[in-house]
From TrEMBL:
One Pfam family linked to the record: HrpB_C
Molecular function terms from GO: helicase activity; hydrolase activity
Keywords assigned by UniProt, alphabetized: ATP-binding, Helicase, Hydrolase, Nucleotide-binding
ATP-dependent RNA helicase HrpB C-terminal domain segment(s): 173-297
Taxonomic lineage from the root: Eukaryota, Sar, Stramenopiles, Ochrophyta, Bacillariophyta
Full protein name: ATPdependent RNA helicase
Natural source organism: Seminavis robusta
Biased composition (Basic residues): 323-333
Region (Disordered): 290-333
Length: 333
């Protein structure tokens, strides 16, 4: 193994030297590099000219964990090394930033080891901010989101790269590895308190269905969408909307059957109830006879329950009154 990491074969092994200084190599048709000219050298000779230094490095197989060692080297050849305690915060920051650059930048380095659920969490935050920027162009959202988008599209400029490096640098000094960096937390940390409130209120991750259930909202391609059972939106006469007060847009609702299959998609609930629901009701009331399919859904009670469950709940609500009367009668005796 050569000091630069390449391998080469020494066919002349009569002396079997531990170290050699290679002057010439050739590569044959088989793709193997062979040493043609060399001089043997002892480890003692190398140690006499070796330099001892402290090295901070990362271990790729452990999520680019930061470590330190005292290394005895001749050029790029390491003769020996001794582990050292954890490096300083400044040294950690420097080596992690260098590693990020070597791996292709913040986007590549911090996203490659993230589990799918965490990646989804990051993407949903970015999609919410993208929509916020498009609906409220006068707002001052952090530039790091636009920089990340530009780089991923292959349109990144040096200023975008610098923007992302400045974003992560404050987090590097306390990180033990690249894997330990939480990109969602870093991106969310760039938002001001007012922007966080705006996201939660105007571009919520969940909205309340009329039956009280909170359902997720997804913002893929700039279109807010949500899915729920059709019966959960009984009584809702207006489509749910998101966005700033002066530029709100309707959520695209995917209305599902009791079995969870999409029956319709709409951004206009009043139109759906009047024009589409009657045909849906005619087709589904026989297939899902246990569930409510009222003629006037805009005046019905929203629910996820079957008709039998609704009746049971209604009867249960009346029972405490009856029991109280009986107990009261016993006391009078």
């Amino acid at each position: 193994m050569l000091s630069l990491g390449r391998s080469a074969r020494l066919d002349d092994t009569r002396d079997s030297p531990e170290y050699v200084v290679v002057a010439e190599t050739t590569t044959g048709d088989d793709g193997i590099a062979r040493i043609r000219s060399y001089a043997s050298v002892t480890e003692d000779a190398l140690r006499r000219v070796a330099i001892e230094k402290e090295v901070v490095f990362t271990v790729p197989s452990r999520g680019h964990e930061v470590r330190a060692k005292r290394s005895l080297t001749v050029g790029s050849l390491e003769l020996s090394s001794t582990p050292l305690p954890a490096p300083t915060a400044e040294a950690r920051s420097e080596i992690l930033l260098e590693t990020i650059r070597q791996l292709g930048g913040v986007s590549t380095a911090l996203l490659q080891n993230i589990p799918r659920d965490k990646r989804t969490e990051i993407e949903e935050l970015r999609e919410r901010v993208r929509l916020a920027v498009s609906l409220d162009s006068g707002s001052d959202w952090p530039l790091c989101f636009a920089a990340l988008d530009a780089i991923e599209k292959g349109e990144g400029k040096p200023s975008d790269i610098n923007q992302l490096e400045e974003l992560v640098e404050p987090w590097l000094s306390s990180a033990e590895s690249l894997k330990s960096l939480n990109l969602f937390k870093i991106l969310a940390g760039s938002l001001t308190p007012d922007q966080i409130v705006s996201l939660d209120q105007d571009y919520p991750a969940k909205i309340a269905a009329p039956d009280g259930t909170r359902i997720p909202v997804h913002y893929s391609n700039g279109i807010p969408t949500a899915s729920a059972k059709l019966q959960q939106f009984f009584g809702q006469t207006e489509s749910p909307c998101i966005g700033p007060r002066n530029n709100r847009i309707p959520v695209s609702l995917s209305l599902l059957s009791p079995a969870g299959k999409e029956l319709a998609k709409t951004k206009n609930l009043p139109f759906f109830w009047k024009e589409t629901y009657p045909s849906v009701r005619a087709e589904m009331r026989g297939r899902y006879a246990k569930h409510p399919w009222p003629e006037n859904p805009m005046e019905a009670i929203p629910t996820r329950q079957t008709k039998k469950q609704q009746a049971s709940v209604a009867n249960g609500a009346a029972e405490p009154t009856t029991a109280k009367k009986k107990r009261g009668g016993k006391r009078r005796r």
